[in-house]
Amino acid sequence: MNTMIRLEGVDKVYRTDRIETVALSNINLDVKPGEFVSVMGPSGCGKSTLAKLLQGFYLPTHGAIRLDGVDARHLSANELRSYFGVVPQETVLFSGTVRDNLLLANPTASFEEIVAACKVAQIHEVIERLPKGYDSELGERGTGLSGGQKQRLAIARALLKHPKILIFDEAIANLDASTAEEFIRTVNTLHGHVTILFITHALPRSLQVDQVVRLGPKPEVLTAVPPNREQAKSRTITDSIEPPHSESSN
Ligand SMILES: Nc1ncnc2c1ncn2[C@@H]1O[C@H](COP(=O)(O)OP(=O)(O)OP(=O)(O)O)[C@@H](O)[C@H]1O
Ligand SMILES: [Mg+2]
C-alpha cells in the first residue's frame, strides 16, 4: 500500500460543557508519497483541525488515520510528530542567532545540514549577506528579516527535521501578493521531494498541486478534485535542489 496519508471516515467533534461543534465529518483522503495536496476552504471549515489530528494533538472522534500504512493510534507522540514539519502562518523567531533559531528544530543538525536546508528554502543567500551570516543575532521579534524571509527560514527549520510530510498552515496568509508569489515559487521547487499539505483559505493559481481537497463551508462536504492536469504537466523540479533527505530518518 503506497499511501503516505490515509484518512478513513474521520470525524472530529469538539465538545465543551454545552456545545458540540462538528469540525470534520466523514473525511476520506489518500495522499501518496511526494504528492502535493492543497487543503482549502473558508474559515471554520476544519483545516487547522485536520492538521492537528494528523500531528496527534487530538484524536479523531470516529474513523482512522494511517501514516505510511500504520494506524496513527499505534505511533507514540514523538514518532507521530517526527513525521511532520510545519510552516505556520506566523513564524516566531527567538532572540539568538540565525543558527540557534534553525537548530531549535533539530539540535543535532550539522552546519552543513543547516546550509543545505537554507539553500532549498532559498534563504541561504539572504543569511550570507547579514553582517555575521549564520551567527547574526535576531531580535525577539526577528528584526532584520522580512515576512517572506521569515517564512523561508520556517521552511528551512521544518526541513531540518527531515519530515516525511511538510504542512503549510496558512503560511502565506500574512504575506503581500508579490511576496506570496515568490514564496510559492520556492514551495513549488519542493514538489515531489517531500509530501506536502498546503492549507489555505484561497488557493493561489501558481501553486503546482496534484490534488485539491475542499473542506466546508458545511463541514460534511468534502470533494477531492482530480489533479489539475495543466498544472501537473507544467510542473518542474529544479535540478539543483538538495533533496530534504526524507528517507534518512528511521
Ligand atoms: N479547541 C476547540 N474547541 C472547540 N471548538 C473548536 C476548537 N478548535 C476549533 N473549533 C471549532 O471547529 C471548527 C473548525 O475550526 P478550525 O480551526 O479547524 O477551522 P479552520 O478551517 O482552520 O479556520 P480558519 O481558516 O479560520 O483558520 C470551528 O467551528 C471552530 O470554532
Ligand atoms: Mg485554521
Could you describe the 3D structure shown?
Helix 4 packs across helix 6 and helix 6 (147-159) packs parallel to helix 7. It contains 8 helices and 12 strands. The protein starts with a strand and ends in a 16-residue tail after the last helix. The longest helix is centred in the middle third of the chain and has 13 residues, at 147-159. The protein is an alpha/beta fold and 250 residues long. It has one domain (33-59, 86-234): Rossmann fold, CATH 3.40.50.300. The chain is 27% helix and 26% strand. The chain has helices spanning 47-54, 77-82, 98-103, 111-120, 124-129, 147-159, 177-189, 229-234, and strands spanning 5-15, 20-31, 36-40, 62-67, 70-71, 84-87, 96-97, 137-138, 165-169, 195-200, 211-215, 222-225. Bound molecules: adenosine-5'-triphosphate and magnesium ion. Magnesium ion (MG) is lined by residues 47-48.
On the 0 to 100 scale, the average pLDDT is 87
Query: Helix/strand-derived class?
Result: alpha/beta
* CATH homologous superfamily label: P-loop containing nucleotide triphosphate hydrolases
- Overall shape: globular
The total strand number stands at 12
CATH topology: Rossmann fold
Q: How many structural domains can be distinguished in the coordinates?
A: 1
Q: In order across it, which strands form the biggest sheet?
A: 6-9-10-3-11-12
- The string of secondary-structure elements, in order, is EEEHEEHEEHHHEHEHEEEH
In the CATH classification, which architecture applies?
Answer: 3-Layer(aba) Sandwich
Question: Which range does the strand content fall in?
Answer: 25-35%
